[in-house]
Amino acid sequence: QVQLVESGGDVVKPGGSLRLSCAGSGFLFSDYYMSWIRQAPGEGLEWVSYINGTGSFTSYADSVKGRFTISRDNAKNSLYLEMNSLTAEDTAVYYCARGVPGGHYFQYWGQGTLVTVSA
Amino acid sequence: DIVMTQSPDSLTVSLGERATFNCKSSQNLLYRSNNKEYLAWYQQKPGQPPRLLIYWASTRDSGVPDRFSGSGSGTDFTLTIDNLQAEDVAVYYCHQYFNTPYTFGQGTKLEIK
Questions:
Q1: Distance CA B96, CA B98 (A)
Q2: Residue A44: pLDDT band by 50, 70, 90 thresholds?
Q3: pLDDT reported for residue A102
Q4: Which of A37, A66, B19, B41 has a Cα at 20 to 30 A from A59?
Q5: Count of alpha carbons within 13 Å of A73, Cβ hemisphere only?
Q6: B97 touches chain A (CB under 8 A)
């Protein structure tokens, strides 16, 4: 069965950096667009970024553009999110999610990893 | 950016009754080349990730009970839950994937009366 497992969440100081990982299994990882979606405490869902199957195309929300970088290693069935210049507004649970060919709705989600930006 | 607005913000319904959730987009979500509406619905229970319920506005995902149905087109969409069960208590989100940035509605919280 499809599984997505995030890791890397931590407490980090404002201005700091963090790298999140997402390990996929149960499907051919390279065939699928992958996204990061975040949810601030008690708030709704915010799409952050996506990457295509080969890693040749990426897209970002304006709120993270220039600070976050999405990447993938298909040989390791892994998705990454490099986060720099973190602020308190980046505090959230970060989910990785798998899309489907031809439609970027999110069919499978990981359990999420918590990033807390605090002095 | 496409703005997704859900109503109401919260909903209280009796067991066995019908719950209706509304979602309005600021732009048409119909892609004319394939005649598909780029709208999905998710259910999120406390402490859990969201679960996909409906995609292409009206297609139920695998394993979703047929009590859940989606409808609508263009800019106005509806999620309906018939014969409400206690396990349906959750927050429900609509989501447009017509173009980036992909956006979600603010959510509707469903409670049992």
A1: 6
A2: very high
A3: 76
A4: B41
A5: 8
A6: yes
